[in-house]
Amino acid sequence: MPKQEQYYLRQNVQVEPLVDQWYAWPHLIPPATTARNIVHRHFKIMDSYINSPQIHASAVKNPKMLGGPFIDYGGKRVDDIRELRECTKRKRAALLELSEAIDSLDAMLRSSAKGYSLHSLYQNVPPALRGYVELVYDLNNHPSFRLIEPLLYRSRYYDPSQQSLMLSMISCDDRPFVLSTPRLGSDDALHLPLAFDDPAVDELFRLKSVPRSWDEIKDMLRISDSQDELLRSFLTPEPPPAYLPYSGPGLRWRYFGHACILLESQGISMLFDPVLSYTYENGVSRYTYLDLPDSIDYVLITHDHQDHILFETLLQIRHKVKNVVVPRNNGGRLQDPSLKLLFQNCGFKNVIEIDELQEIHDGNVHITGLPFFGEHADLDIMTKLAWLVRIGSHSLLFAADSCNIEPQLYEHLHREIGNVDALFLGMECDGAPLSWLYGPLLTQKLDRAMDESRRLSGSNFDQGMHIVHTFHCREAYVYAMGQEPWLNYIMSIKYTEQSRPIVESDRLIEACRQRGIIAERLFGEKEILLEPNPACSEPAMVISS
Ligand SMILES: [Fe+2]
Ligand SMILES: [Fe+2]
Fold first, then answer.
1. How far is the CA of 116 from the centre of ligand 1 (A)?
2. Which of 58, 524, 537 is nearest to 254 (CA)?
3. Where are the extended beta strands (E) located within 328-456?
4. Averaged pLDDT for residues 183-196
5. Ligand 1 is a single-atom ion; what residues have CB below 5 A from it?
6. I need a labelling partner for 251 at 20 to 30 A (CA). Which of 127, 165, 232, 514 fits?
7. pTM above 0.85, yes or no
8. 354 phi and psi angles, rounded to 5 deg
9. Across-strand partners of 477?
């Protein structure tokens, strides 16, 4: 039998992972945060659109409203939105119940838990939550609850059949903001009802580098004949160029945009906060999916924000990833879901949870999780770590959006870890207010002034300079600023030269350069090679996991 022609998935097939047809971000996986977002974000936005589509159409055009709760269909497709709303209401009845139960539980604790034993209150827990929550006080008798998350994932509240993938072609950076507009079907998009943990997801993305026959591909994706033509347009017999891993004696890091950095040394590869651009003709030079090794030893996540955990990228590289390293959560807080459970339920194997000051050793590579303060609106959230990587005599600190609100922290850390050669720091020092991200989780209205005061803001000039000085850094890179044009669809940021994050980071770069420190705000792409240093000294601290 003649060999059938073999096909690859084109490099510019865009894949939108969806939950209830909304663009998937980390709070749409854990059952409790999903429930709150369906009721207090999705329904609110859809109701408002159904009532006043034209208000949405004008708001979307206003740059000041970027990232706001507005549906971007130019005032059209109101019936489709209404249908999606009804369908969600039907299919997600259990989650609507769960969300309401969280409101009732909070109200019950406020009115009945006054410092006396909580035992008798278990009978007043709403039925939807009975057996899924433990009631607790803090040491000052403030009542609250913790969710038993592993059980919730095994309950009727976790329904992966509502997850899907939408495939279409992308050929430029101009991609509209996706977090407030549900994804409706269109003629040029192929909607695959695949749960994120479905092995077919890996098979699909392996197709970018390993070709298969048409029959195999069609079988694997379980599509109907009417979708043949569209699927064929996503395939090509053309093989992609091979990736050349770094094999030098030192280390190489490459900046892929935002907080995404690939570090390769001595046969070990680490990818931080993966967010990648597709490959197409474009204005800004960049690394893309083609610039990843065939196998990635560690994917490291700094924190649970949508610009640092991007399923669109993560699902596409899952088949290459050996280990995912995440910060440990605080056990059952609604606002701090477990990243380990989240990744495991999305089909990732070998998810490693790391505590503050815990370390991973792999050959000559030491990775340590360092405390990460701020940028979470003062909420009790533990899933955030800065990553210190030491390889031989080189040390690099990927601090992401750490906000240096307590300089003493870094003084203490310096005593433990010594100097750091290169600092990577986000300086988005304006930040959105608490409610932008966490609003749907609140069960009581937050005073506007409080909301505005509690922001998701990173370090400013003084805070950043203090870290540079404390660790005697020789290089300082500002990153994670959301400036790359291919990330507009998840970032609600448009800077001008007068924007505070730009002014403050310019000052930091200038001040560093005056002191002989290499400094730059990363944008687009960057590659640095570091030679091995013969005067290699052992690290000051070793805390093994
Ligand atoms: Fe963040
Ligand atoms: Fe960020």
1. 38
2. 524
3. 351-354, 359-362, 365-371, 385-391, 394-398, 422-426
4. 96
5. 305, 401
6. 514
7. yes
8. -125, 140
9. 424, 520
